[in-house]
Amino acid sequence: MKKEKLGAKTFLYPMPTVLVGARVKGKPNYLTVAYCGIMNHDPALIAVAINKAHYTNRGIRENDCFSVNIPSTALIRQTDFCGIFSGARVDKSAVFASFYGKLKKAPMAEECPVNLECRLRQIIPFSVDEVFIGEIVQAYAHKRFLSGKMPDIKKIDPILFSMHDYSYWAVGRRLGKAWSIGEKFKIKPR
Ligand SMILES: Cc1cc2nc3c(=O)[nH]c(=O)nc-3n(C[C@H](O)[C@H](O)[C@H](O)COP(=O)(O)O)c2cc1C
């Protein structure tokens, strides 16, 4: 099969859309982040890549903690707003009602269905971005977004992001059970 070469680009689909929260100069600040991923299961480590010029970074450094907040599609305008305007110019502290957990200094957005409270573990600098690795010390969710004790993706209705069409997307249909559906696959000789 002949494939087109697209260059060394970050074509990963889908990307999450999260809000990273940090307290800068004593006030909550949230920025929108698509470069976010889980690094380790136990301890629970999460990484966010943030441009070195952004305002939030200094708050993460100041307090050694941050939060990762998962907005639902109903929060699309607030989420985009936090990705357009920098806290250096606009006070974003009232975009969400903030609450605090055991670390005391990582603001979390009340309106977001799921919040991950993170203790800063490591900063890895690259050319443009720096990656903040946080240890998730507590996860929070409103009861209405759970099925049993687990967050329910349908109820959360998270915002997906596609970088190269600059668009937000919603979660589609459920395809099947993981660690199960593959059992029916039979390898054919080539
Ligand atoms: C959908 C979307 C995704 C974004 N993803 C990232 C990202 O992964 N890393 C980053 O540094 N900036 C990202 N940005 C840009 C920042 O959110 C934006 O520059 C923000 O205003 C910085 O806020 P701050 O200066 O208050 O920290 C994204 C923006 C949008 C709209």
How would you characterize the overall build of this protein?
- The protein has one domain: Roll (Pnp Oxidase, Chain A), CATH 2.30.110.
- 11% of the residues lie in helices and 39% in strands.
- It is globular.
- Strand 11 (146-147) and strand 12 (150-151) form a beta hairpin.
- A seven-stranded antiparallel sheet has the order 3-2-6-9-10-5-4. The protein has a three-stranded antiparallel sheet with strand order 1-13-14, with no helix packed on it. A two-stranded antiparallel ribbon has the order 7-8.
- The two termini are 14 Å apart.
- It has 190 residues and is mainly beta.
- The protein has helices spanning 56-63, 76-84, 153-156, and strands at 15-16, 18-24, 27-33, 36-40, 45-51, 65-70, 98-99, 108-109, 114-125, 129-141, 146-147, 150-151, 159-162, 167-170.
- The structure holds flavin mononucleotide.
- Flavin mononucleotide binds at residues 17, 29, 31-35, 49-51, 54-56, 80, 83-88, 129, 161.
- Under the CATH scheme, the architecture is Roll
Give the CATH topology.
Pnp Oxidase, Chain A
CATH class: Mainly Beta
Rg (CA only):
18 Å
User: For this structure, what is the CATH homologous superfamily?
Assistant: Electron Transport, Fmn-binding Protein, Chain A
Quick structural summary:
By secondary structure, this protein is mainly β. The chain contains three helices and 14 strands.
